[in-house]
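Lecture 7, part 2: worked example. A protein chain together with NAX.
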Amino acid sequence: MKEINVAVTGGAGQIAYSLLPRLISGETFGENTKVNLRLIEIPQVVEKLEGTIMELIDCGFKQTGSLMATADIREGVTDAEWVLLVGSIPRGIVVEGKKIEERSDLLRINGGIFTGQGEAIGKLAKNDANILVVGNPANTNALIGKTKSNNPSQNWCSMTALDANRAKAQLAAKAEVDISSVTNMTVWGNHSPTMYPDPYNARINGISAVEVINDIDWVENVYLPLVQHRGKAVIDARGASSAASAANAVIDTVKSIDNPTEEGNWFSAAVPSDGSYDIPEGLFFGFPLRSSGTGSVEIVQNIELNDFAKSKIKITTEELLSEKEAVQDLLE
Ligand code: NAX
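Predicted complex, written out as structure tokens:
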């Protein structure tokens, strides 16, 4: 059996609880890959991971390799092929006597975490490692982490697959088709309510979803806000943020990167802009992507964007630029 090392931060969090068994079950990395899992937590929480490891052993998957818990990011990411940065500080927590409510405070606190994590990954993870940032604000955390990693041969991305799955589900329900008929979904921009889950270029059985649904008012005024605010709707309904669906999206992203993309289709994740679609270079931006399955992921070019799309993409670009400005000192 092939063996790989996978590091996960936030190992004791709620997303990780849904994610970890699926990383070592053969589902994510294949039936013939043994997965050595390194769970990384803050020192106050790391002991809890002993219980998590007991449960992972009790799952009894034959693909389970070594299981380790640590509060030392350096130990956790050494020789990792995949690093899943799920851990972060949630909004509402009290840090040094101050309740963290503002997005700008959240940006700075979590940005601070990603500087050290980026440095450790750049030096110690494999040179061809893939790094997926889930912890919010995910795009800007990825920008900080990649900058600090100072290792251009590693591949960083941040997650928009949950948004893409939410968008596909809504289009499928409206068109009364199976979700597998909905393809080519792009979530342009930020993983935040400014995202643009593109209904014009998404396809239902090969035809533009907007054409199939034939109800522009629904697409622009119902579908769009529904997908953009789905995270909050889940929190309101369940009293906790999306976890099972977020874990599922992590697995979708890993599989999309590790395997060749199906002919004619693409998938969604945020990667550093190379200037495509006039997005400022370096910003972590949700794009349509294709993977060779052998380590290279490219941005799909020449997708037509109408004025509505361009106006939405402008809003999310401006938000990402302002996030970047708020953490500028962490990027130096
Ligand atoms: P939880 O609060 O349940 O778990 C987070 C865990 O991270 C905690 O156990 C905490 O101790 C740990 N942690 C904090 N700082 C750490 C550090 N420096 N090193 C290692 N571990 C650390 O949150 P959960 O529901 O699991 O969500 C995790 C993150 O995913 C949050 O930031 C959340 O906002 C984000 N999400 C991102 C999504 C996306 O699509 N990009 C969707 C789902 C989710 O909202």
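The mean pLDDT is 96. The pocket of NAX is lined by residues 9-10, 12-16, 40-42, 45, 86-90, 113, 134-136, 138, 159, 162, 191, 241-243, 246 (CB under 6 Å). Keep this in mind for problem set question 3.
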